Amino acid sequence: MALERLQKIIARAGLASRRQAEEWIAQGRVKVDGKVVRELGTRADSDSARIQVDGKPLKQPRRHVYLLLHQPRGCVSTLSDPERRPTVMDFLPRLAERIYPVGRLDYHSEGLLLLTNDGEFANKILSSSSGIPKTYWVKVAGTPPGSDLQKLREGITLDRRRTLPARIRPLPSVGRKESANPWYEVVLREGRQNQIRRMFARIGHPVRKLKRVRIGSVALGNLQPGEVRPLRPAEVRQLLEASETHE
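Given the sequence above, the corresponding structure tokens read:
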């Protein structure tokens, strides 16, 4: 009998990432053999235990799906929205599998978003220990002095924790005049909520536009807002290998 943590079993079934599964367990939405389980350390045998989420039996997916979406501005990275705003699900093709976003972009941002039904894949991408770099193009109000940018590169304190070092460089103005609101490329190895917006706000130069263009070796490329494509097997493999390299 192979016992595994309940959140890992749920993630492997493709319902959610481990992080989301942990929230479901804590909320009492998960049952094992008819009993509600709230302890995150609970282990079960996926072959013999009757595991239910919201009263529905846990089933393994028929296949794993990996999608890359260019999330447009003005939609939310969730399966549904109580405010009835557009969600990323509005831009996806009809699928037999239930998929969900890997992480999120805020409502006013755009760019690369991964979606999957492979919970272990999602967990590796989202794990802070994986350190997979995420690249953003950021337009800010005014031109920050070099000393302030250096502070952001070295790390500042947000929520009583210091941010990890970041790579920040100006994006060249190709075929256009220099702007009073310049663009920067920012590379992070962590993903706190609204981190880039909060970082630049701290030095007095609020973000005007934000676009995620790369996760690890996977690039947004020429995909237009609202367009979606499957990840190539090599891209899935590269992301998994990158997560293992940095753990």
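The chain has a mean pLDDT of 90. Try to locate this feature in the token string yourself.
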